[in-house]
Each structure stands twice: as structure tokens, then as C-alpha cells.
């Protein structure tokens, strides 16, 4: 059981809180992971009373939690932890009301989870300090994106840093809570099989893809200001790249792991000027079909400008300028309204030095993050019968079946428990966020400087043709 603390969820009536955070906390409660004295206070502007909020929270939890996991008795005991407080986070006086409502800080400390728009982070931190709610025992959790550029990220980090010590700040990226992502570290650093070949001499290239069939849904206003580069590449994809490429940390703790990730971000070759034309592709989905249903073009989505040039697809050829990875391209790709939903990492090895058989293929390691979580290694084997006819076969680790007796944890369950326990290993440090923006900003500036408008691609396709040409130019192809 964890140590006791109280959790305050700003934006408590939003989708993140109701669809992810509360179901995750419900599961932790159900499994006895939360201290009996832990309380959860949701905060938002909606004028609800406690009973109204509990009814709303129960409906959403029922919809998100598996039927076999949701019981009235467990919900009743979980609901005893829950409370609701209506406030406007832009008003300093409301934080004074909050301080009077909750009383003196307990010895156990408090967790402030900011499930709000990033432009509210600075005000919330400052108002917590003014109201005397930011104590040395408290922690603050920030959802991505941290800013929309290097300058804005620095401003947010500086504002948070004036109130909270860096050890109290947890910048969350839910991809780092996925089981397969953590298994990537186990695969690399707990198995002597891969370490000698995990380098430029044996690896031809790496692909990291996060593909979605959904459009912008109800996030049109936010997404039209950010686009795929800020929404996905700057955080999720670069975090995955770091875990693939980082050196083994001297120990498995927060600072050692994050030190190695920062080194990778700082070693990324800048993409600027004319390189933006050659090594990046922007795309935007047009009308098409997904699952047999017609879907509109991006610029007809709700709360999106009709003349929007925001990208919904990005492909990038990145390179890491260090001893291990010199000359190995890392192809990053993400997009909305694509043919299939999946997230995966592909490690494509180089072919054998001497091709003895006519139909051999180079080995490939596939790390699938979603929809299923699995790791498979493609090897060449002789097919039955006369002659030496080779076919690729897979050594497959399906995590769902390998650990079938254990319930699969949602990423937010693991990350919330880490916050409660004060373990920041799977969270981003200030310099890590800023290093990522330092690499992304010149690409965004290059798109603007060279008027590189998004290339159209039909909804339900695999993205713009130019994204395929990015690999085909070098005799490679996306793992589709």
C-alpha cells in the first residue's frame, strides 16, 4: 500500500479526468493500492454539488471500466474518497476559498494534477503559492504539451519552478506508462542477446509509427493551434526514440534514466533550412472512408478553420550524431484518419554480410504498443520440402497471453501510482522538455519559411505519397 496523500484534480469535469484519471484511480482503489486516508478532490468551474459530480463520475467510470471490474460496492467505497469543489482557476480569490475549504495541509502532502489547458499552468501554480497551498510536501503533475515552442516551454517551466522544486514536478507522458514501452528497457538492458548488435554496425534503420483512425473529435479548437508536430512528435515520438537509442543508465533511478534521454535529444542532428524540405513531410487528411463510413476532410471538422493549413500527419527522417547511431536514420511517423490504428517500433537489422540463399530477408524486431502489446523477432527459416527455400517466421512474445493471469494495467494507473509514491523515473525533466522543443522549433520555422503547406491524403489511406518517397529514395519502405 502506498503512503497517504490527497489528490486535487484541476479540470475535474473534463474528458481526461473522467475518462482516464478517475477510472485509473478506481482500479488502484479496487486493488488496495491507495492509502485508506487518501482523498480525491475534483475542481472545475461547473456549478455541481457533490452528489451531482458523483453521479457524473459514476456514469463515466461505468463506461470506461470493464464490466467484470465495476461493482456497486467497490464504487460506493471509492466514492467515499471523492469530493467536488466549484472554482475558477483564473481567480486568485477562489484559491483562498479552496484553502479554507480543505483546511491545514496534512503531513502526508498533496498532489495537484493539472488536467487543464497548458495556458493555465502558470496561473494555477502562482495562485497555489499565494494561497499557501504549495508546501514542500506537495507535488504538481503537468499534462503535455508543455508549451507550443521552446520559449513558451521555458516560460511555463520557469513559472512552475518559482513555486515548486524540480523534484516536486511530474511532467506526464502517458506513453511512458505503457507496459510495452517499459518492456523495451527490459529487452535492451536485461538481455545480453541484443546489446552487442544494438548499434549502427548491425541496424539499418529504425521506424517509430503512431497511427490513428480517429480525427480530431472534440479537440478541434486545440488541435488546429497545435498540429501533429506539437501534439505527437515533440513528446510521444521523441520519448520513444530516446528509449530506443539511449545508453544504459548507471542505475535504474529517475535521474540516471533521464540523464541518458537528454543526451539523445541533444545529439539529434538539427533539421533546418533546406533540410526541412528533404527530411520532413506534412500532411492533412481530405474526405474519405474509414470502416466503410464517409468521413469529412479536416477543414470541415468541428471548431477547425475552413482554410486551415494545420498538419494532421508528419513524417520525419531523424539522425542521432553519436558513436552508437551515426549513419542510422530514425523514421518518425504519426497521423490521423489513417487506414489502421497502431503504434509500433521497428528495428530493421542489416542483411547478412554474404547472401548465401536467394530468398533471404534481413531480420526485423517489431515492438507493438497498441492495439495489442507484443514483441516479435522475424528470423529466416527453411520451409518444409525439397531445396533451401526460406520464409520469415516470428519468435513472438504476446504480453497479453504471456501474463494472462494478471490484469493489464492502464498507463495512467502506473503513472498515478508513481506520482503518489514520488517516483519520477517515467516522467520528463525540465531540460528534457526544452531539448525536445529545441529540435522541433527549427522544423516548424522551416515549414513557415518555405511555405510548405500540408500534402493532402485521403482519410483511410496510409498518408501522403511523399511520406513513402522519404524511405523509397533510400530503398526502404514503411512497415505497413
TrEMBL record:
Where does the record place the Glucose-6-phosphate dehydrogenase C-terminal domain?
Answer: 185-479
One BP annotation, GO: pentose-phosphate shunt, oxidative branch
Q: So where's the catalytic machinery, residue-wise? A: 236
Source species, domain of life:
Bacteria
GO molecular function ontology, one term from the record? NADP binding
Keywords, sorted A to Z: Carbohydrate metabolism, Glucose metabolism, NADP, Oxidoreductase
Give the matching HAMAP family: G6PD
What is the similarity comment for this entry?
Belongs to the glucose-6-phosphate dehydrogenase family.
Q: Write the protein's name.
A: Glucose-6-phosphate 1-dehydrogenase
Q: Which organism is it from?
A: Metapseudomonas furukawaii
